[in-house]
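Please produce the structure of this protein holding nicotinamide-adenine-dinucleotide.
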Amino acid sequence: MPALPQESLVGVIGAGTMGVGIAQVAAQAGHAVLIYDVVEGAAAKAVSKAMAALAKRLADGKLNQSTYDGIAARMTAASEIEDLTPASLFIEAVAEDMTVKRELFAKLERFARQDAILATNTSTLSVTAMAAGLARPERVVGMHFFNPATTMKLVEVIRGMASDPEVVDTVDATAQAWGKITARSRSTPGFIVNRVARPYYGEALRLLEEGVADVATLDAIMTEAGGFRMGPFALMDLIGNDINYRSTRSVFEAYGSDPRFRPSLTQQELVEAGWLGRKSGRGFYVYDGKASGPLPISEMPAEGKATPLPDGWENMQVSLGPVLLMPTDGRRAADIASRENRPVAVHDLRFGAASGRIVVALSTMGEEVRRNLIASLQATGCSVTVLRDWPGLVVMRTVAMLVNEAYAAMLQGVADGDAIDRAMRFGVNYPRGPVEWGATIGLARIVAVLDAIYADTGDPRYRVAMNLRLAARSA
Ligand SMILES: NC(=O)c1ccc[n+]([C@@H]2O[C@H](COP(=O)([O-])OP(=O)(O)OC[C@H]3O[C@@H](n4cnc5c(N)ncnc54)[C@H](O)[C@@H]3O)[C@@H](O)[C@H]2O)c1
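Below is the modeled complex.
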């Protein structure tokens, strides 16, 4: 199905954070856009505020004149909802409340054109439930933009059980025509991004609770070794611990208290204390404009004899003097050492050779042997962190859980692998989509890591998705 023609009117309802951004995107793509808000004057105020911000960007040379003129000419506040009657596409971005959204759609159905599409920007609510009770539920679809809608590339296109496939196709093509990257998802709790991203926060919180490392060290490991743009704790502080905790709770409850999504007591405590993150001045970190923040724990320069590491050392077993250096397969260094009868260092997963940190766990070894090993790792130019000897370490454990969640979502028909990878790369800026990442690491290794963590913890959150285990077997 082709995208909506540019001459079609787009009606946006709700002139808050998301509504205004979405209206700008549609206007910039060439549509006339009317935006309405239930609070009198709110839409006009929001449009003026958005135009003032754009005027500043224009003055700073960050926006060109024709983009500015286009948005100014085409984005208009409506004072009555009925002014939106000729719209071909309605996008609602009102309060996240099923009753409010249902009432709104029932009202739109009374005056909208027969062929108009009714799209919702909901982050958490069921598109199927929202459409239920309407005379024509087949024209309801999810069009989930990310904040800020003007710059975030991803739009999740959500199919409710009653959605007409042609309507879904049109919305998908339209979002692409607006310059977005789309990922199709079935209407299920958290859709793709808010579900598959849960282990990024959940594993970090657990690693903290298990005493594996502190907040700053875990963040540094995930960014400098894992290649993620922001560490999990800095990101939770940015999102707001209240919002992040609520998202986890809602996915946890919606999936029948599945232990994979179990919320963290540490984060709950932060929320109850009002330590919400940046917006309250304190979360996992303190934001007082003064403190430079805690530093990650790294080894001091070791005065040992460095042995150069061979090319490709990250993916193979290497003998460094008496030490066996190997990538983590989920087993603890001590367990491998007792089998191999020699000292062992396991290193964490790293994203790309350019990553700046090497993370290792060590079996018992003599002081000099340790010094020489650390000196050899430091000779690569990377910072070195020695962690507790813990199954799967940090990056590998987190990535294995992201891969597992992506497979669980595929198993349940939420989305296909390509859509999941696009969603995670462009919705939350992951360095690689989890499905592609799993293939690069090797699915057998991912399964081994999860099985090892499961064996050591007994926690059912680490059970392997059936399709992942089968794919690993046949890979
Ligand atoms: N903020 C985000 O990061 C984000 C991201 C993706 C999706 N969403 C979803 O987008 C929607 C809007 O979120 P937001 O952050 O823009 O909220 P917001 O509170 O900033 O704005 C909501 C606006 O809707 C108006 N409104 C409420 N009920 C209305 C009604 N019946 N008719 C017309 N206007 C009404 C309010 O007056 C308000 O101006 C929610 O469903 C939310 O879950 C939010």
